Amino acid sequence: MAASAAPEHVERIVIENCSIATVDADDTEYASGHVVVAGNRIESVGAGRAPENLANVVRRIDGTGHLVTPGLINTHHHFYQWITRGLATDHNLFDWLVALYPTWARIDEPMVRAAAQGSLAMMARGGVTTAMDHHYVYPRGSGDLSGAIIGAARDMGVRFTLARGSMDRSVKDGGLPPDFAVETLEGALAGTEATIDAHHDASFDAMTQVAAAPCSPFSISTELLRQGAELARRKGVRMHTHGSETVEEEKFCHELFGMGPTDYFESTGWLGEDVWMAHCVHMNDSDIAAFARTKTGVAHCPSSNARLAAGIARVPDMLAAGVPVGLGVDGTASNESGELHTELRNALLINRLGAHREKALNARQALRLGTYGGAQVLGRAGQIGSLEPGKLADLVLWKLDTLAHASIADPVTALVFGAAAPVTLSLVDGKPVVEDNHLITADEDAIARATRDEARRLAQIAAGA
After folding, report:
1. pLDDT-derived band of residue 43, with 50, 70 and 90 as boundaries?
2. Is 146 left (phi over 0), alpha (psi -120 to 50) or beta?
3. What is the DSSP string of 164-228?
4. Quick one: DSSP state of residue 3?
């Protein structure tokens, strides 16, 4: 690919002698090629070694035995759940929520910051360069939870979208959360707008963006959905929520609103190219057609869907219809591993249990879900998600010459079908975040201690409530 012009004084990083999967529109790959990073942009990608006469090369990396891909992009998560992992392990979604809401409603700022650090560290060390968090639990008097999450992402050095969530439909209104776990309609809207005003960056190379994200049909009022959509579009930010996750949700929507989730969302302004929804497991042909027509995106969370026995999302049918689809870790109370490589593999394997069987997804489609598909869903396909000149330098150098992958000839197959590959280098905005399979922007042991302490403190508070 042709080089993009960069000022001569800009420092360059050169990676060469590696396999490359660009995940561009043509799925261009190089068996042995190079990537040149200039500042925070990709300057060139191509076959063979990089030019020898490049100016200001501060680092030249021999990538023999490695594969370079775009950085992984996570499109759905709940960071705070890191400190409630391993609980309610044999529950379906509704029972799981009822079991955990009373504990979640006692979180505070130190807990949320520690949980965000744990969630981000696990993803970043596994190749995630763009993360997102759908945070929707804001107990009164709990501190600046949005600021704590955004601060943790900034310190980790990853690109980040905070989906500022909210709930205003409690048990007394026919919802699932306890009464003390929700905000008022006015408080939720005001909190969302304040977070957008304080933190959203619309620039090309933004490190922090904000989306408006009322939680789910069974925890929010119709008015919060309607006014939330109006607020998001007035502010020019994206919109995110949960949709069509379980058969119980489908029944809930028909009983309460007289229609299924997709029709309900469309009636409240929640379909469109500025919207993406998590899960979308129980979608009929009409639902998929509506998403395709409106370019509404989907965050596919295969591990969480299996953990909560939600079902198998119709990802091959969505892709065939033209629905943008990315991958999501989901909260670590329903996906205890907390990293995205698992989702590449599980998206491929679980979808082969569905109607399309072995033709459901292949390795390159799974990699596209975790990279370019995620960029589409987050509204950033022009900036990240593929290795192309002019795009932001978010990339991962995967080590594939160890015992775990050495006998798999095709590097993309090795990455997707094989065990989690070590990350030799991860760049975000042209800056190293992971080196030799270790975070260099955070102390993993300190984060582990902090999350253990905060998990213990939350359990004690919840037990005494």
Report:
1. very high
2. alpha
3. EEE----GGGT-SS-GGG---HHHHHHHHHHHHHHH---STT-SEEEEEEE--TTTS-HHHHHHH
4. P
Kind of pairing, strands 29-38 and 66-70?
unpaired
For residue 326, what are its two tokens? 């990315």
User: What is the torsional sign of CA 254, 256, 258, 263?
Assistant: negative
Q: State CA 437 to chain mean position distance.
A: 20
Token duo for residue 152: 């943790």
CA distance 329 to 360: 20
Region 220-241: mean pLDDT is 97
Which residues contact residue 333 at a Cβ distance below 8 angstroms, ignoring those fewer than 6 apart?
78, 81, 84, 85, 87, 88, 96, 100
pTM score of the predicted model: 0.97
pLDDT tens string 245-277: 999 889 999 999 999 999 999 999 999 999 999
Report which of 118, 74, 105, 131 is spatially closest to residue 278, judged by C-alpha positions: 74
Residue whose pair of structure tokens reads 């499109």 in the numeric block: 75
- Taking a C-beta distance cutoff of 8 angstroms, is the pair 361, 320 a contact? no
Could you read off the pLDDT of 65-94 as tens digits, one per residue?
Answer: 999 999 999 999 999 999 999 999 999 999
DSSP 79-103: GGGGGGTT-STT--HHHHHHHHHHH
Helix-strand-coil percent breakdown of the chain, rounded to 5?
40, 20, 40
Q: What is the pLDDT of residues 323-373, one digit of tens each?
A: 999 999 999 999 999 999 999 999 999 999 999 999 999 999 999 999 999
What are the phi and psi torsion angles at 395 (to 5°)? Answer: -150, 165
